[in-house]
Amino acid sequence: MEYMDQQQQPTQGQILCCQCGIPIAPNPANMCVACLRTQVDITEGIPKQGTLYFCKACERYLQPPAIWVSCALESRELLALCLKKIKGLAKVRLVDAGFIWTEPHSKRIKVKLTIQKEVMGGAILEQVFVVEFTVQNQMCTDCHRVEAKDFWKAVVQLRQKTSHKKTFYYLEQLILKHNVHSNTLNIKQHDEGLDFFYSCVDHARKMVDFLRTVVPCRYKTSQQLLSHDVHSNTFNYKHTFSVEIVPVCKDDVVCLPKKLGHSLGNMGQICVCTRVTTTAQVMDPNTLQVGEISGPAFWRSPFQTICGSKQLTEYIVLQIERLEDKDRRHVKGEGARSQKHLLSDVWVMRAQDMGVTDSQYHCRTHLGHILKAGDSVLGFDMASTNVNDTNLEKINPDNLPDVVLVKKHYGDRVRRHRKRNWKLKGLNKDDARMDTDSADGDYIGFLEDLEEDTEYRRNINIYRDKNKVPVEQSDTEEEDAPKISLQEMLDDLHLTDDETGLDEQGAAAI
Asked: What span, in angstroms and rounded, lies between the C-alpha atoms of 192 and 209?
């Protein structure tokens, strides 16, 4: 007979519960879990109900004592806020916490907690319970100030000393694209510019920093003392930021200071402003030299425009000849030249003189790539205009051109506006002391600039206007008018027949 060695499995002894007498594993309390829970409640001192305060205007919750935080339903941020509202958790060990689903409109938030605590001689008891929070509506201090309408702590005053507001329309589109206006209390528009009101000075500084990155400008700050607490040594101020944009706009004719022209590569002093973005970009129509003038460079050598877009005269092109590079005037140390334009000699006549006189003007222009005989072009008549400018008076009159051509004219702007199948969005602002007729003309001119300049509209969101009724084109003279392609309108284009949801919240379609 053979004997097999069998491994003896150790068995755990059991004892009887001192309360109910059922066999249990030994523990320091000598009681079963059910009897232990009847004797000890580890959730004692922890409230089972609470209150959360919610602002419906900004959708934020109150975090005591006075901080409002944004939290989504069943998010980690909201769970942390609920746990901070529960008193007594420091005396127990939190094992798990989570939400129990409730109806979103029920105004109830339930949190399921699992805690542990040492009881009766070292025994660790674990218990699960639910804390129910009631959501009550309360308006936060920021929204309360917004509802007060005229309350503000900081204002950004944006100004530009020009006869039209094309730069403001361009700046408005940049603000909408980057959503910089989200913290504004109110926006007021008048003939001098725009005013942005804020409840916090930091938001105003953020707007000023944005403006300095998109347009050449300078700013000054000031503050007004409202109240002073002598006990806590605290002060209450109203802050004002005055931002001034350089007084040069697109399609303006300027006369540069001689020192500034030398710094730009010996550029001629009579120039045309082709674009105003982060810098003011100017071009010499006689040599195609281009230069960029930043905000600090302009304020070191300031100058004024000698002709704005509203003072341009319409001319008719009689003859145009391309100018070869060898015939162009070369200067020592000249800067970069534009590769998108073509230097040409052109003979023009004023449109109002057609059939009246035979006076013709000869000049050089940078628009040789788009002009042909018979076209209409807008320019500045320097021969018969008296201009008071310090820099212009220092130039020899024999070196001044008779006409400075600025841009091509594409016919009736009202007809072009009716055929326009796209739109822009605008800020919700209060129009106070505004000349509406002048503002409408400036806005239509801004839309024409967007159509004619591809680089100018690169940073702007353009939306398709489905409500615009298509107009049949009958005039052949407007066939070459520039248009914005459909590919550039895809930001707001819906390929379905759904007509809703075209406009985003916070912006109004113009």
From this structure: 21
The answer to whether 331 and 262 are in contact (CB under 8 A) is: no
Q: In whole angstroms, give the CA distance from residue 491 to residue 1.
A: 92
Element containing residue 280 per DSSP (H, E): strand 280-283
Instruction: Enter the DSSP assignment of 209.
Output: H
Determine the Cα–Cα distance for residues 35 and 77; give it in Å rounded to an integer. Answer: 38
DSSP string, 28-91: TT-S-HHHHHHH--TTTTS-SEEEEEEETTTTEEEETTTEEE---TT-HHHHHHHHHH-TTGGG
Residue 466 CB partners (closer than 8 Å, separation 6+) = 499, 502
pTM check: above 0.85: no
Rg (CA), the chain: 37
If DSSP codes are grouped into helix, strand and coil, which group holds residue 94? strand
Q: How far, in Å, are 31, 61, 240 from residue 57 at the CA level?
A: 54, 11, 27
Residues paired with residue 93 on neighbouring β-strands, in sequence order: 116
H or E stretch covering 169: helix 166-178
Strands 425-427 and 430-431: unpaired
Helix (H, G, I), strand (E, B) or coil at 307: strand
Strands 305-307 and 290-293, sheet pairing: unpaired
CA distance 390 to 392: 5
Q: How far is the C-alpha of 72 from the C-alpha of 104, rounded, in Å? A: 11
**Using CA atoms, how far apart are residues 254 and 251, in angstroms rounded to an integer?**
9
Q: How far is the C-alpha of 220 from the C-alpha of 206, rounded, in Å? A: 14
Q: At residue 128, what are phi and psi to the nearest 5 degrees?
A: -115, 130
Instruction: Quote the longest CA-to-CA distance of the chain.
Output: 142
Q: What is the pLDDT of residues 455-499, one digit of tens each?
A: 888 888 888 877 776 655 554 444 567 788 777 775 554 444 444
What is the residue type of 304?
Answer: Q
Percentage of the chain modeled with pLDDT above 70: 88
**What does the DSSP 8-state code read for residue 383?**
S
Both ends of the chain: CA-CA distance in Å?
106
Q: Are strands 234-245 and 154-159 parallel, antiparallel or unpaired?
A: parallel
CA distance 245 to 280: 10
pLDDT at 510 over 70: no
Tokens 């960029």: give the residue. 292
Task: Provide the CA 422 distance to its chain's centre, in angstroms.
Answer: 20
Residue type, 374: G
Taking alpha carbons only, the member of 322, 508, 326, 309 closest to residue 426 is 508
**Rounded CA separation 344/363 (Å):** 9
